[in-house]
């Protein structure tokens, strides 16, 4: 039952201090009740425990900027004229998943050699078909240079660029770089073309708004927006992966298209997606513009890319390794640097005095976090340049000067010697199967062979279907385990005929490839 006096309810109050004050004031006017209640609580306040939070950690209190959701209308109006659609006519045996080698889970990468090969039971008429593939790109100069992905135009017999206003222009391939999956095209026009600038990707931060423009599923001029989800993603596509991860929806056909920041600068080239079903699930990858600048500048000048070479095999440093070699690392912080596991004889590293067990911590004053970062930084250095390598040796810091050379001046240049008796080139670049290459390709120590680290565009090797990353294991029936042995075996085979049979390993599967120097099309396929 409720008790009520002067409009103040007593029942339902369970705190003994409050209830005692109320009951003492029955029959008293409301103002006096309130005064008595306050006084009663004050008198008993000393009996309550005093809590102190002076030494208690407080939760993170994010300070949010009071901004509205960005509007991209004006940005899109200004940059869209420089974004193009690309149509490539491909042979059916050159077709791969449009997302390229970086796509995972959305389908199998096309294999150009049907099984069984080359031991077919009877001759078969193989009618080559031409397939139309589409991608995206963007103009970077008024005289018609267009950036796109290598996998968009790889193996193309004809390339057409469609401008935003519908104008179609034939394009020539200036150069391709399979290692970064970039390509440079050029179109001719009687007037200056609208173009956009490459920005500074080093300044990009996770959480930043970005806009993707491209040609998904052939729907030209499509705009999507999202944020940068993460930086420095290595998706296992090659030694020079350093992708932005974004959640702006990109799909088939977006490859090669630009990724813009709000100031209208291109900070990435949309290249790959992670997709269990073939469509966007909010995990896309873009090549940072700083990588694009370096590659495109070289393709524009020479048609190919030259990278620096140091000559070390490096590995990550575990906490136990750090302790064993005397590195000072804060508790819980992963050790930074690249531990030199092996130094290649006669390499720049060997000549400069680098040793197995050294820890490379910086290159030209740029911190090295792991072996992947080291490979990226070395590749960016122009050959014949002297670089400063900071190392830890026996726990002591020191700096060493190293003259970087071109990768093509090392064992990788053995491909230049793979030729016929009249000097015709196969067009492959070979390198030893190093420990780093084994890790990149997922190969066990029992696998032997020679790494094909580059294939020249338009060469007999490319026409035969050889890929960068293939492992050459035998020439005919002769096994090879180093570049020089491979060169000798190929040269010997080409003395008697204009074609050579190679056995390669690709994605764990053994394949035979017939390479013809005079372009014969009658080899088994």
Question: Overview of this structure, please?
Answer:
The protein starts with a strand and ends in a 9-residue tail after the last strand. It folds into four domains: 4-47, no CATH class; 79-305, Thrombin, subunit H, CATH 2.40.10.120; 308-407, PDZ domain (Pdz3 Domain), CATH 2.30.42.10; 411-516, PDZ domain (Pdz3 Domain). It is globular and about 55 Å long. The longest helix is centred in the first third of the chain and has 15 residues, at 30-44. It has helices at residues 16-23, 30-44, 73-79, 150-153, 289-302, 319-324, 348-352, 371-380, 435-441, 460-464, 483-494, and strands at 4-5, 8-9, 83-91, 130-139, 145-149, 156-162, 168-177, 182-187, 209-214, 222-233, 243-246, 258-260, 266-273, 284-288, 308-309, 312-315, 338-343, 359-363, 366-367, 385-393, 396-406, 428-432, 450-455, 471-475, 478-479, 499-506, 509-516. The chain is an alpha+beta fold and 525 residues long. Strand 1 (4-5) and strand 2 form a beta hairpin. Helix 1 (16-23) runs antiparallel to helix 2. The protein has eleven helices and 27 strands. The model is unreliable at 1-12, 97-127, 411-423 and 520-525 (pLDDT under 50).
What is the element layout, followed by pairings?
Layout: E1 4-5, E2 8-9, H1 16-23, H2 30-44, H3 73-79, E3 83-91, E4 130-139, E5 145-149, H4 150-153, E6 156-162, E7 168-177, E8 182-187, E9 209-214, E10 222-233, E11 243-246, E12 258-260, E13 266-273, E14 284-288, H5 289-302, E15 308-309, E16 312-315, H6 319-324, E17 338-343, H7 348-352, E18 359-363, E19 366-367, H8 371-380, E20 385-393, E21 396-406, E22 428-432, H9 435-441, E23 450-455, H10 460-464, E24 471-475, E25 478-479, H11 483-494, E26 499-506, E27 509-516
Antiparallel strand pairs: 1-2, 3-4, 3-6, 4-5, 5-8, 6-7, 7-8, 9-10, 9-12, 10-11, 11-14, 12-13, 13-14, 15-21, 16-17, 17-18, 18-19, 18-20, 20-21, 22-23, 23-24, 24-25, 24-26, 26-27
Helix pairs in contact: 1-2
